[in-house]
Amino acid sequence: RGIPREPGAHWTEPGCQSCTCQGGRVLCDTVSCSVPCSHPLPAPAGGCCPTCMGCLHEGVARAEGDVFSPSDGNCTVCVCLAGNVSCLSPECPPGSCPSPSLADCCSCNPDKCNFRGRIYAHGARFSLDGDDCTTCVCQGGEVECSFTPCPMLDCPQHQRHLGPGQCCSTCRDPPAPAGCFLDDNGVEFPVGQIWSPGDPCELCICQADGSVSCQRTDCVETCPYPIRIPGQCCPDCSAGCTYMGRTFSNNETFPSALDPCLSCICLVR
């Protein structure tokens, strides 16, 4: 090919041909590659032999020391070392799975539970004979029992009641109030009692539920000279007249305080 070669020279021609110059003749043969690994990478550009500086696994190139899981492996872990791929699968114990991590990787059949002469499947929930307050569950051959949870009660302890055959306490109905207790003065009025809290124009009544209902009285009767009676809400127009600070009875005559020549009379109308 126009290139002089020394006797005994070795070189590589395109197409991975290994050639030698012997006695003026060129002898060529296909390059023989020795690959000492199970998953070599393809020959790099310009090279003839695959390389073990990495791995080719399931068509995916892996770098040296790369740890990976195969696409169809069930918890199998593989590592690339010097062109070789080594994989490790978990050891699955027979029967039940002792840990949740193995249950995700192994095909396990959880053990059934033999409890008090009965067989329960894994995950089954049941109550003890005659005791509905206890709930049991079968977990991998073992039975775990616990008390039925009870709701939180918002009533005091003395109002809680546990009925026959019940698992949880309930709140008793509070006793009906016997009357109305007033915190300000400590007086208790019976149901239906009517009283005035200090203002004669206001009346209060003790309700059946223990509450107090109060209402003011509106005075509709008016007269020019009413008589105010202590402790009474509305003025009295039928008892007489009040004039200049003095009280006079009906039809009573008295001199005027402004003019002694005038005589006045109290007339109730």
TrEMBL record:
Domain VWFC: 1-53, 53-114, 111-172, 178-238
Keywords from the named record: Glycoprotein, Secreted, Signal
InterPro entries, per the entry: vWF_C/EGF_Fibrillin (IPR052080), VWF_dom (IPR001007)
GO cellular component: cytoplasm; extracellular region
GO biological process: cellular response to virus
Subcellular localization(s) per the UniProt record: Secreted
Keyword tRNA-binding included in the entry's annotation: no
UniProt key word Signal: yes
PANTHER family the UniProt entry points to: VON WILLEBRAND FACTOR C AND EGF DOMAIN-CONTAINING PROTEIN (PTHR47333)
Protein name as catalogued: VWCE protein
Organism field: Alaudala cheleensis
